């Protein structure tokens, strides 16, 4: 199958492209820079130069492919409205390009804010609709294309998709710990983050492309929830730093923009996904990766 992948040179996207190619699929990846294009070509993928603002290029890439996996996001946490608008525009453009084709359209999403007080399951619908909602309501927008002859699938990723050279949330927390000289956690540290190794996430995406029915919500979750105190303790051991609770009124000052996320309970299950796809996570745990030096300085 010829698959068009946005975010193809990113952390998750790179792993997904490798997984797809190894399984015998053809890949065209969207690349913003010459360096990203070179990395994709070295893997054996084709390249379409462009970014999330190049809607004409995204439309053409989707129209030429047999399936689309949309993983790109601006992740502008200082100006979320910009990220939300770009995300919604890209999803609308891809869905329109696939209208009536029956082709798979897999869209990256997350678990934050879907439910409170318990782990999120695949049966839980996202409450976010409309352009002003998180991610521009892109999950629900994509799933609505099932009524227009498209085969949409939601890919809900854990808040941490970890592994060697990960530059996401855990890398940010490790950097803050080194800068502050203390590995902190919010409050009592009992709130949890779901986690998955990047190799397991990539395999789930590939299986979702091959097996998931239209309208499915898939959870890239290996660990239901790692307490934030345990995450901070693992970072402390990795960098020989003291570990301390950060009071609620100091979380934003200590952690900056990521404080709002680190203080959330982001637990989720993947029982339904595992049963549907025959997917069993097999990679290292988050704490194992931290202990193994995945977030060491200079890596």
From TrEMBL:
<dbReference type="InterPro" id="IPR001509">
    <property type="entry name" value="Epimerase_deHydtase"/>
</dbReference>
<dbReference type="GO" id="GO:0005737">
    <property type="term" value="C:cytoplasm"/>
</dbReference>
<feature type="domain" description="NAD-dependent epimerase/dehydratase">
    <location>
        <begin position="3"/>
        <end position="213"/>
    </location>
</feature>
<dbReference type="Pfam" id="PF01370">
    <property type="entry name" value="Epimerase"/>
</dbReference>
<dbReference type="InterPro" id="IPR036291">
    <property type="entry name" value="NAD(P)-bd_dom_sf"/>
</dbReference>
<dbReference type="InterPro" id="IPR051783">
    <property type="entry name" value="NAD(P)-dependent_oxidoreduct"/>
</dbReference>
<protein>
    <submittedName>
        <fullName>Oxidoreductase</fullName>
    </submittedName>
</protein>
<dbReference type="GO" id="GO:0004029">
    <property type="term" value="F:aldehyde dehydrogenase (NAD+) activity"/>
</dbReference>
